[in-house]
Amino acid sequence: MSALLRLRVIPNANRAEVVGVHGDAIKIKVQAPAMDGKANAAVLAFMAEALCISARQITLKAGEKSRDKTLAIDGLDAEEIRRRLLES
Q1: What whole-number distance in Å separates Cα of residue 2 and Cα of residue 27?
Q2: Is residue 68 a contact partner of residue 10, using CB atoms and an 8 Å limit?
Q3: What is the mean pLDDT of residues 50-67?
Q4: Residue 79: which residues within 8 A CB-CB, separation 6 or more?
Q5: CA 42, CA 53: separation in Å to the nearest integer?
Q6: Helix (H) or strand (E) holding 43
Q7: Which of 15-19, 22-26, 31-35, 84-88 has the lowest mean pLDDT?
Q8: What is the pLDDT of residue 87?
Q9: Average pLDDT, integer, range 1-25
């Protein structure tokens, strides 16, 4: 089982958190700056912690240099991912 998840990422935030929904994407904030891949690494680590899964189950599929990112997440379906992120 695998699902794609669209994110809208805000770097340089005071804390990492899920903010809500941005169109069909989930909007999150991360503390890391958007340089040298630091924000991407922070997104992957935050998502693994928020979803209670291993970071190895998450792959950045698109948006390496964009605020709009697409992640592939193994082991969860799209409905479960949205539930875990938006109901926490």
Answers
A1: 20
A2: no
A3: 96
A4: none
A5: 15
A6: helix 38-51
A7: 84-88
A8: 85
A9: 95
User: How far is C-alpha 32 from the geometric centre of its chain's CA atoms?
Assistant: 13
Residue at 42: amino acid letter: A
Cross-strand bridge partners of residue 71: 5, 60
- Return the amino acid letter for 54: S
Tokens for 36, please give them.
């040298």
Angle between helix 38-51 and helix 78-86 axes, rounded to 10 deg: 90
What tokens does 21 get?
Answer: 């929904």
Taking a C-beta distance cutoff of 8 angstroms, is the pair 18, 26 a contact? yes
pLDDT per residue as tens digits for the range 24-33: 999 999 999 9
Distance CA 20, CA 65 (A): 22
- Characterize the bridge pairing of strands 58-62 and 68-74: antiparallel
pLDDT reported for residue 88: 60
